[in-house]
Write a structure and sequence with these properties.
The chain is mainly alpha-helical. The protein contains 17 helices and 4 strands.
């Protein structure tokens, strides 16, 4: 009697590749975005160094310019230069962050809830663990817990500047993971600022800001165009939001989220992508560096640096950035892949995720902003915590550079494979492997090269057989 046929095994659930190849549109967007962010990050690095030199070598002039006030007093906007940089210029930075977030939600890595779960979990853990580390250090050491949010932020521009300086060719998937982490990080940093650092609210001014945002949204939906309409309206919304008591940068985020970031038929770029392309250089090349110039100028004497490791507030910031960020992001990523259908790209290792998590410990722009909000009125503590942010970010950068350098050869091989365009049609070959026309083009290219090699070989053979001519 024949044995019964075995029961077929149930099909295994499909698994998603974590840090796999990006889609071609996402790859092109990422390349353009990172190019601007990297240049802006280098400018930011220069601005931070200039601020340190200026504040330590010519401290009196730095303080007098930073504290110089100007602006209409009647509108409640007679602010210092440093205040204008933090509340005014950073609104441009957060506007770009809002557009980035909107694009990620509707067309990028966060549009699929299943795919978005991993970077969101990683970013949340990467903010919760540093806050926990800071709080534990200060509870044990008897310090102030007011600065718990300082080490929760990642500065993507500074992180990419570090990549540019050390010359590491990271694969696109790792860069995209870092960028997506930073976008989610920015979102939760905005929520932290709005919820935890708003003491009192002027409801009349807030109502005016909401009405202004409604008008902004209506004009966008009616396809009204003209910078001369939107820029003055944005300034009014910003001024009302500032006077409401809610941090003025929230206005920038709100307007960025209102832009349409999906493409309609016949559009090469959505309005959000177009405006982001125009504003991003202003943010990365001017707004953020000027904020750094008037925020990073702290005294770095030997005693001040030693105090970083003595006071619980500053030690909590350093440990939060260096240890908390790394453990939070790496641990959150591992847990998300462990309990979901995602699996790590076979070309990469968990050491690569750990290196990127360490790199995310560079907290600068938003960390400095939260420091000023958390310890408002205590200039001595603000300066101490700024020194801790700088030292923690520098430590994270050095550690990440070492870890990335250990894998640089592997990264270069992956990057070259991703960027190879042998048929020179502007599309990397890896995206055309399933296209029959691509294989025909490649066959023609290879045949042409082979014919050229045969011709050169024949010429070389003829030259070697030719008899020597008399002198």
């Amino acid at each position: 009697m024949a044995a019964p046929a075995p029961t077929p095994a149930p099909p295994s659930p499909s698994r998603r590749t974590f840090l796999g190849r990006l889609s071609l549109p996402e790859r092109n967007y990422l390349a353009n975005a990172l190019r601007t962010e990297t240049v802006g990050g280098v400018i930011l690095l220069v601005a931070a160094i200039a601020a340190l030199v200026w504040a330590n070598a010519f401290g009196s002039s730095y303080a007098s310019i930073s504290d110089f006030h100007f602006g209409p007093e009647s509108l409640g906007l007679n602010l210092s230069v440093a205040h204008w940089a933090a509340d005014g210029l950073l609104a441009i930075f957060f506007f770009v962050a809002g557009v980035e977030l909107k694009r990620e939600l509707v067309a990028g890595e966060l549009r699929d809830p299943k795919a978005a779960a991993l970077p969101v979990v990683a970013a949340l853990c990467g903010m919760a663990v540093p806050a926990l580390v800071y709080t534990l250090v200060n509870v044990v050491g008897g310090g102030s817990t007011d600065g718990w949010a300082v080490p929760t932020a990642t500065d993507i521009a500074f992180a990419l500047a570090v990549l540019a300086v050390i010359g590491t060719s990271l694969p696109n998937a790792l860069r995209a993971f870092l960028l997506t982490l930073a976008v989610v990080d920015d979102l939760f940093a905005i929520l932290i600022i709005a919820v935890f650092f708003t003491e009192r609210i002027n409801f009349m001014a807030l109502a005016g800001a909401v009405i202004g945002l409604a008008v902004f949204w209506l004009l966008l939906r009616r396809n009204v165009r003209g910078w001369y309409i939107y820029v003055p309206l944005a300034v009014v919304i910003w001024g009302l939001m500032y006077n409401s008591g809610i941090h003025a940068t929230i206005a920038g985020v709100a307007m960025g989220l209102m832009l349409r970031c999906t493409r309609r038929e016949g559009e090469s770029h959505s309005p959000g992508e177009h405006i982001e392309h125009l504003v991003r250089p202003l943010s990365a090349g001017l707004a953020v560096p000027l904020f750094a110039l008037f925020s990073a100028g702290v005294s770095l004497s030997g005693g001040a640096l030693a105090d970083v490791f003595i006071r619980p507030e500053t030690l909590g910031v350093v440990l939060g950035l260096v240890v908390g960020k790394t453990v939070g992001i790496f641990g959150g990523t591992w847990l998300a892949t462990r309990f979901t259908k995602a699996e790590l790209n076979k070309d990469l290792a968990w050491a690569d995720v750990f290196a990127v998590a360490t790199l995310a410990g560079i907290g600068f722009t938003v960390s400095l902003l939260i420091d000023e909000l958390a310890f408002v009125g205590d200039e001595d503590m603000i300066n101490r915590v700024k020194a801790a942010v700088l030292l923690g970010s520098l430590t994270a950068a050095v550690l990440a550079a070492v870890l990335l350098k250990l894998r640089v050869r592997r990264y270069q091989a992956l990057y070259e494979a991703e960027e190879l365009d042998e048929d020179e049609d502007g599309v990397p070959d890896i995206y055309e492997q399933d296209d029959p026309e691509y294989h025909l083009r490649m066959a023609a290219i290879h045949e042409k090269k082979a014919a050229e090699h045969r011709r050169l070989a024949q010429l070389a053979g003829a030259a070697s057989n030719e008899p020597d001519r008399p002198a």
